[in-house]
Amino acid sequence: MTLTINYRYRLHPDPIQEQTMLHWLEISRKVYNYALREIKDWVNARKCSLNYCSLSKEYIIPANKSFPTYYNQQNALPLAKKAFPELREVPSQVLQTTIRRLHDGWNYFQQRGYGFPRFKKFGQMKSMLFPQFKTNPITGWQISLPKIGIIPINLHRPIPEGFVVKQARVLRKADRWFVVLTLQSEVSRPEAQPHGEAIGIDLGLEKFLTTSDREFIARPRFLTSLYRELELLQRKYGRTKKGSKNQEKVRLQVARFHNHIANVRKDWQFKLANHLCSKEGIGMVFVEDLNLKAMSRGILRKHTLDAAFGQFLNVLEWVAKKHQIYFSRVNPDGTSQTCPKCGTHTGKKELSERRHRCSECGYETDRDHAASEVIRLRGLEKLSTQGLWGIENAYAVGLPGTEATQSRSEAKPRREKN
């Protein structure tokens, strides 16, 4: 079994190396746009109106010409280097991965039916990939990249023993450079199995997180608390002259501010995830399988995107695997309309109604806490339906939905054949 992890480090290139990488990104952008132009021309040449021809444009492409696939465009790079000598300045594999990146987006567009790849404007190409290395590029506090040379790297955490650097992606955020190293090792890492106690987690905007063991976490407003300062920076950027040095200076200030907000948010989410997974006796974590795309389009989309529920769930899943804790997502429908004690459907609640009151059993608690208890019960029921009975844990007997199933201890012994 191959284990793959990604580590990100800060790069400190000198001015010459920085200008070289910026030049490579611009060449990669042109290659990306040229390849996309070939795809769009081929597509437009295969569609027309039924009763008339267009008077404004014409695509003179032979009908027998095949679609410009990844391999066709990759094989055309050697000929393109003869016509455009500047392509020789960039490592060939970097240009190949740029075309691969375009076709990954094209394949994704065909699968979901929308999201046609777009042309990239100046400065929108932010990263380039070095897909393989003959030897280990890390030497002490330096990394060696093809045609660039040795660049100082902030190796704030060492590469784990037994892992090999397979590829490196150099990316630029604002005025800072980073490298994402993909590390691989032939190790066997067992999947986390259900064990210990279980907690259910309900996410929301009034309280960011509520657990089934009555822990309430307030929602920090990362963007909205700093929105006034960001608004002033953007207004300052709008007053600058287009293409001036002052505009570039203010643009970097806005980009740095956005990166600061994103870093603060992600740091807080990692700390919260480690806090939840470090609780004594916790072996299972259940969350809602939310429709995050629909949530980000509602009237509270600004606050929903600021909370970054999707990013937090991914962080929580990664941290749970690191702590060998079983992580699972359950059906989110009706979690706030079901009583966790008797299972009665209590009906739809308005957002202003923050208490759960069951008319059948009289159970009363906080609305979000009741939802987290329902999530926990659905997670345990999901385990019982998946057939995870051979695993010894605190909930091996008595899971919801097992009343009609004969207990293992009461099962009759099988008759031996004579």
How many domains would you count in the coordinates? 2
| Widest beta sheet: strand line-up | 2-6-7-1-5-4-3
Say how many strands there are.
Answer: 14
* Average pLDDT rating: 86
Query: What helical percentage do the residues reach?
Result: 25-40%
What is the level-2 CATH architecture name of the largest domain?
2-Layer Sandwich
Low-confidence region ranges: 389-418
Gyration radius, rounded: 28 Å
Structural class computed from helices and strand pairing: alpha+beta
CATH topology group of the largest domain: Nucleotidyltransferase, domain 5
How would the global form be characterised?
A: globular
Oligomer kind: single chain
Largest sheet: 7 strands, antiparallel
Terminus-to-terminus distance:
44 Å
Q: What does the secondary structure layout of this molecule look like, with pairings?
A:
Layout: E1 2-11, H1 15-45, H2 70-75, H3 77-83, H4 92-112, E2 127-130, E3 138-139, E4 142-145, E5 149-154, E6 164-173, E7 176-186, E8 197-203, E9 207-211, E10 216-218, H5 227-239, H6 245-277, E11 282-288, H7 292-295, H8 301-307, H9 309-322, E12 326-330, E13 355-357, E14 364-366, H10 367-385
Parallel strand pairs: 8-11, 11-12
Antiparallel strand pairs: 1-5, 1-7, 2-6, 3-4, 4-5, 6-7, 8-9, 9-10, 13-14
Helix pairs in contact: 1-4, 5-6, 6-9
Keywords:
alpha+beta, Nucleotidyltransferase, domain 5, 5-stranded mixed beta sheet, 19% strand
